[in-house]
């Protein structure tokens, strides 16, 4: 976390290991190179959905990503402020779409709600219920549109 002139709140920076975007759009922010917000969005989806397909105990192909509260919070804000998750998913390869649907069907709402309490969220009015409701609604909307409903 960095403090920078002109920012009302500290800037939190994460470093990623996986390279999802081969030629990212990079801009300078206070002299620090950062990915374009759409590339960050894609990386958050890849972190949540996973980047590799595996077989589960029944032989089905599933994606396994990480289940970190901070990723869900970031996806919530990206969906609200950049582009709705349902629309963003429409543009992605099927692997990420399947991964997000699998995540939606399997993530523990209780575990997220508990972990959310430990996160340092700047918006003190934001609740885990609001995040869960929004992300679940966006995935349901995407699934409905993909199925032609």
- Measured as a percent range, the helix fraction is 40-55%
How many E-type strands? 4
Low-confidence stretches: none
Profile the largest sheet: 2 strands, antiparallel
Distance between the termini: 43 Å
Query: What proportion of the residues form beta strands (DSSP E)?
Result: 5-15%
The succession of helices and strands, N to C, reads: EEHEEHHHHH
- Output mean pLDDT: 84
Q: Which descriptor suits the 3D outline?
A: globular
Radius of gyration: 16 Å
Order of adjacent strands in the largest pleated sheet: 1-2
The gist of it:
With 149 residues, the protein is mainly alpha-helical. The chain contains six helices and four strands, in the order ββαββααααα. 48% of the residues lie in helices and 9% in strands.
Report on this structure:
- With 149 residues, this protein is mostly helical.
- The chain has six helices and four strands.
- The protein has helices at 37-49, 69-81, 85-90, 94-106, 109-116, 128-146, and strands spanning 26-29, 32-35, 53-55, 61-63.
- The protein has a two-stranded antiparallel sheet. A two-stranded antiparallel ribbon has the order 3-4.
- A hairpin with a 5-residue loop joins strand 3 (53-55) and strand 4 (61-63).
- Helix 1 (37-49) runs antiparallel to helix 2, helix 1 packs across helix 4 (94-106) and helix 2 (69-81) crosses helix 5.
- The protein is globular and about 55 Å long.
- The model has no long low-confidence stretch (mean pLDDT 84).
